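User: I'm new to structure prediction. If I give you an amino acid sequence, what do you actually give back? Let's try with this one:
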Amino acid sequence: MALQNIPKRLRLARSARVQFGDVVYEPGGSCGPRVQQDYQLVVLLEGDAQVDVAGREVRVAAGQVGLFRPGRRELFRLSEQRKTHHTWCAVHPSMVTGALAKSCEAAPDVLPVTRRFEQLMELGLSLPRTVGERAPGLVESLGLATLQEYLFAGERAVETGPDEPDALRRALEWIGQDGHQAVDLAALAREAGVSPAQLVKLFRRHLGTTPIRHVWEARTRRGAQLLRETGLTVGEVAFRCGFQTPFHFSRWVRELFGVSPRALRTKAWER
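Assistant: Good question. You get back a string of structure tokens that encode the predicted 3D arrangement of the chain. For your 271 residues, that looks like this:
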């Protein structure tokens, strides 16, 4: 067997139905042909892959993740010029409901790796090798969550359109992270990698709003969830969601939900 076809496996965590893996191939490596048995997510960290899927060409570049479905014959041809480092998550079809399987069929073949997807993959890969025997449910829950995050990202890509710029995606990913960091337009533009004026233009064109309004609406909805699901005071919720004062948070709650934070909590708890 040629040296480039002997991969170096770095990390592995698995149960009977889910596997997370991390592998490096030398330049010119390949994998297959094989018939895919699982719903497999393949993330390219370095290099690239040209994949023949039942006669159809699928390309996965660094920073992207590809979804490969069961029953298809596949042949992976990896970069000729550099090493190819990829991770994967394989979920057995027995874990996938009929509705989820339909979503997998409709999902894009390849998507950019989101921050949340990257975090789920890292959680799966950080598990010890023995976890599949001692706590298989942990591996399987993470595997299913990783697959569902891919589908969620695919649905969002369809909603916003295929021409959604990477800068807008980066900004939305940052906004979607929990946290209470101070934010202004300049800071958000730096996260997105564009000028403030360009970011405003992107938000107006694709989402019909401004970047800062989107930030406060997202933080208000996060705060409303905390009000419904925790016993934190209104001030504590406001701080955790990035508001400078409880008054600022209350004003946004009234604007989005039509009631005060305390009334919103009371309504939820009395159901």
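You can read the tokens as a compact description of the fold. Here is one thing that stands out. The first helix runs from residue 98 to 106.
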